[in-house]
Specification:
By secondary structure, the protein is mainly alpha-helical. The chain folds into 3 domains: 40 residues, no CATH class; 121 residues, no CATH class; 168 residues, no CATH class. 56% of the residues lie in helices and 6% in strands. The chain is built from 17 helices and 4 strands. It has a 4-stranded antiparallel β-sheet, with no helix packed on it. Helix 3 packs across helix 4, helix 4 packs across helix 5 and helix 5 crosses helix 15. It starts with a strand and ends with a helix. The relative contact order is 0.11.
Length: 363
């Protein structure tokens, strides 16, 4: 008799047979017994905890960007819910809107977009997130890639002008925060000026330090996507998820540790004008570490696998930030590491007590 462990969309089950049990995902054993299951822990309950954790981020987004934040969040959430219902109808299934997964996908997508995106960007991004990011794989629990990042990747490539650095700046705005470029865009510009000889290293460093104070990055006084302005708000939400055990520590620690080390290395060799701490609390790095990369469906099952997964995201993120033309690398880093999850699960299967099961006994 099989008993579902929660209902987290990961198709994870416990099969009891005599005195032994094993966890199976997609028909493959990944851990030895014993296992405890919490029948009251459902997809809806887990999504509810994530929504609670996102409240500080949402509040800061509304305080900084006002109506623009409300508009973006509303469009993404409503479009994701409508897309979920539509694609489920095409497949002849009832729309599982009550599990809150589609709404949460829309919310995370909205928080990763610029405040100035025209209405069609969040709408099309939401449809692609649900359709290509989840529905084509069979729905929640079967998708390989993070749906919100699939949607953002689509609009990033399809609407480069609406998603570029200029999309974050409006010179005649009444909101002072949106009259300047984002910290990562400024760092890229200063690096380009330095390479072209328009400024010296000392001048560029002084300009960067004057432009981006640690305090402004922490409290959310600088421009950026809706969910990345306030590091304090993100840390509060992330701490809640860790305390409630909705996410595990391995992925955030892997991302933050590797990012810090490689940014420090790049800073020593003058590849970036931002210091390690500034990189950690700038852009979507923190938001990704706690709310995007930790998606239980598209991240590894084992502790070692999750740590490697997080370290891979941190490394790729820094490489993209330092060497590509994109100021931010979170989206591509997460999607690339999502593709490695089946391999990480296979590589990091823990051995049962007493060593591996003999081949004959396992047949």
């Amino acid at each position: 008799m099989a008993t579902v462990i929660g209902d987290l969309g990961s198709r994870r089950k416990v099969f009891h047979s005599g005195d032994s049990a094993s966890v199976v995902r997609l028909g493959r054993q990944i851990a030895p017994s014993p296992h405890l299951s919490d029948q009251s822990f459902s997809t809806q309950r887990m999504m509810g905890h994530v929504l609670i954790a996102l409240m500080p981020v949402i509040v800061m987004a509304v305080l900084v960007f006002r109506w623009n934040a409300v508009r973006q969040i509303s469009l993404c959430v409503l479009a994701c819910l409508a897309a979920e219902a539509l694609f489920d109808r095409f497949r002849g299934r009832s729309a599982p809107l009550h599990d809150m997964s589609a709404g949460l996908t829309g919310l995370i997508l909205a928080l990763s977009l610029p405040w100035s995106s025209p209405w069609y960007v969040p709408v099309l991004g939401s449809v692609v997130a649900i359709g290509l990011g989840k529905a084509v794989f069979g729905g929640l629990g079967c998708n390989i890639f993070n749906p919100a990042m699939v949607g953002r990747a689509f609009v990033m490539l399809a609407f480069a002008r609406e998603m570029g650095a200029s999309a974050y700046v409006l010179l005649d705005s009444e909101l002072s925060v949106v009259t300047r470029a984002t910290p990562l865009s400024l760092a890229k510009q200063f690096a380009a000026d330095l390479a072209a000889g328009r400024v010296t290293a000392g001048e560029a460093q002084v300009q960067m330090e004057m432009a981006e104070s640690i305090w402004a990055l922490l409290v959310g006084q600088l421009n950026g996507s809706l969910g990345e302005t306030s590091a304090v708000a993100i840390l509060i939400g992330g701490a809640y998820l860790l305390i409630r055990r909705i996410i595990s520590w391995e992925i955030p620690v892997g991302i933050l540790l590797v990012s810090f080390l490689f940014v420090e290395l790049g800073h020593v060799f003058e590849m970036t004008l931002l210091g390690p701490l500034q990189h950690l609390i700038t852009g979507s790095l923190l938001f990704s570490a706690f709310f995007i990369a930790t998606d239980p469906v598209t991240s590894p099952l084992t502790c070692k696998g999750r740590l490697i997964f997080g370290m891979g995201i941190g490394f790729l993120l820094v490489v993209i930030r330092l060497f590509s033309s994109y100021p931010e690398g979170v989206m591509f880093a997460v999607l690339l590491m999502n593709a490695t999850v089946p391999l990480l699960n296979r590589w990091t299967v823990p051995q049962p007590l007493g060593g591996p099961v003999p081949a004959k006994a396992g047949t």
